[in-house]
Amino acid sequence: MNGSMWDGRDDLADVITSDLSRRLSTATVLFHHAVAERLGLGPTDHKCLDLLYERGAMTGSELAAITGLTTGAVTGVVARLEKARHLTREPDPRDGRKQILRPVFDASPEIVEVFGSIRDDAAGLVAGFDDHELAAIAEFISRSIDFSYRRVAIMRTEAISRVKEKDHDR
Amino acid sequence: MNGSMWDGRDDLADVITSDLSRRLSTATVLFHHAVAERLGLGPTDHKCLDLLYERGAMTGSELAAITGLTTGAVTGVVARLEKARHLTREPDPRDGRKQILRPVFDASPEIVEVFGSIRDDAAGLVAGFDDHELAAIAEFISRSIDFSYRRVAIMRTEAISRVKEKDHDR
DNA sequence: CCAAGTAGCTTAGATGCTAAGCGAAATAGG
DNA sequence: CCTATTTCGCTTAGCATCTAAGCTACTTGG
Q1: pLDDT band at residue A156, thresholds of 50, 70 and 90?
Q2: What is an example of a Pfam family matching this protein (chains A, B) (predicted)?
Q3: What is the pTM of this model?
């Protein structure tokens, strides 16, 4: 239960990939949901907004493709986020069908308060590590990000080829 | 966009806490949701099941406290997970009101297939790191888990003291 | 035994997602 | 230039799931 009783070599690697990463995943999902509630957003809205912050402006159909939502759901997400002033919509000058969704960065005092406090706390995550250790951590996180998106893509394509196989033991 | 062009000391720490952790968070949420869909579960059901796997058997009210769900929502979650054979319910011999929710570990071939493939892929996450680097990574993940649960607890208590302040610009 | 607290379930209402289909705009082919 | 196809975002109907409130059953303390 404490965090400092590992001994072996490959054991530690296994602990990271099997146990720690899984626990971090669950904790992250809970955290993400709590932040969404704190901001008055649903989890889906928060997820979409995060993607807009990370990747910059994009269209609704891109957002649907990344999140796996239908375009109908994205319409609702965009309408709520726009009403709450978290994004703006502009028509694409080169394609009249598209609308460019642009995240609003001049955050409200509400958001500054929440994330300011979080950011201060987050400094403790990297306290005491030297450059070499930080580089290893950064590399691990980068690989984890790639891993997640890679597996999401694989699961989506599997889902397509699996089509419909429902009512399997009702 | 590539993952190997950092130079400074504290810059790297900032990149980890501000940028990389956030991107990992978003990727993790998408991943978690995709796994849930792959298993035929909703995101909430999957989150609860993960908690049961991690922490072992618990009661419904504990699950509600950890996830922030109402007890009514937990009732629905438990009913669905039980029907899908992901958990069993036993009455608590010492308290007739409680029901002990026990996760089922003899997973279906479905689950073995999904997570077997994922586990093989995950081995690449730690490839090439030495013991020292792995220890740093493990420590960082442990801190991140603690961080997430700590901030969730803080946000929940803030939400209580904030009570009702709705309809703020409809 | 009775009062108060706790655990889980039920109900009503609201929200948000999917699936299917629409019109408008861009592209391809003749 | 003109039509056919594709793509984009929106609308609608239906459904799943969450919250809030109240209920019953059980436990605990006087």
Answers
A1: confident
A2: MarR_2
A3: 0.87
